[in-house]
Amino acid sequence: MKLLVIGGGGREHALAWKLSLSSRVHKVFVAPGNAGTALEPGLENIPITSIPELIEFARKEHIAITVVGPEIPLAAGIVDAFRADGLKIFGPTQQAAQLETSKIFAKKFMQRHQVPTASYMSFTDAELAHQYIDQQPTSLVIKADGLAAGKGVIVAQTHEQAHSAVDAILVNKDLGTAGCEIIIEEFLQGIEVSFIVMTDSLHILPIATSQDHKRLYDEELGPNTGGMGAYSPAPFISPDLHAQIMRNIIDPVISGLRQESIRYTGFLYAGLMITEDGHANVLEFNCRLGDPETQPIMLRLKSDLLTLIEHAINGTLDNADIEWDERAALGVVMAAHGYPANTRKNDVIHGLHDLIDQQKNNDNFHIFHAGTIMKGTEDNEILTAGGRVLCATALGENIKTAQQNAYKLIEKIYFEGYQVRHDIGYQGINYQEKIKQEAIE
Questions:
Q1: Contacts of 62 (CB under 8 A, 6+ apart)
Q2: Tell me: the pLDDT tens digits for 158-168?
Q3: Which domains does the chain have, with CATH numbers?
Q4: Residue 268 and which of 70, 186, 353, 437 are 20 to 30 A apart at CA?
């Protein structure tokens, strides 16, 4: 069986790698892929990004199933186009993907179906937005309505920051058409976690819990990024909280989509804020797996991913069983110089080839590539080609051990100007140590 994974980031590397481990898979094509997928056994990159060419390729190669990784092809309607051509594909339709592609659509949808989320107002006029800010508490969140490559959310701790964000998006058009409309919402405090499920539009299969770290610097300082690291499982999500999230958020969303005649097949990611009183509120939806959450989640997944996806496509997800490694997994992102504002490219990455050779015979770690390319020379030099370059991911008996193992991998890799957070997983580690101490006392 031949499969096709759409995308070229760390999430797609992890998905393609996991799919290639299935005994029924002969080859996984990745479009367009990266240096990591180029060097991975069982994977092959194809330099195609246009939907018509991808459909032609899938037909020519007799691709059994296509899996969509990133949001841009979903927003462009790749699932609708493949299905219209009679091709099997895993991912939500363009209409369903509005939960991610339009913050305002998502907010209105949550209001209609009583899904807990922060209060908000939407604006296209900067003056009205400024007036609204002056009437609100100090801390606010400004969000561009459309897709903005991780740059469309500004957490403003002061009114001055909020006003600047409004001017940047609505007046200066820094985000282009993605910022034609904004929402201004209340700032929620608590612990942020990622809650991901698979669905066939009727049945729901929860995925292992996780937490990512959005800020560039340690201790949650610096600008927001696409994610500087993640780990799984998230110990804050107790069985009771898990049940609350399913009951109050996930179930109403999936049933609400059905009520509105919107077919949703794929992964659904809910970015949640767990407030001090133990209640979960939706910060955002992604209509795909998170990145970098996917990397530790795939390292922990023991079940055949292909079988799970087949169940979702066939509407039989209620018959699926999913098994996880009981150990924790943690991934640390190495970002390029200047990320996220002015990313530098084409720096040579050292130390990767030895680790790539070692991971072929070691299931306890994996280096997932995101912004990398092959230089094309005989010595197979690998260069940086994006903001988030690599995600060094490792297993451990607990979060702290997984953290130590991941940072040992980071020590073996070098490229000029790289940026790394040194505290990935700290909230989970502190929580586990607190519980351990309470048990002793």
A1: 2
A2: 999 999 999 99
A3: 2-93 (3.40.50.20), 119-186 (3.30.1490.20)
A4: 186
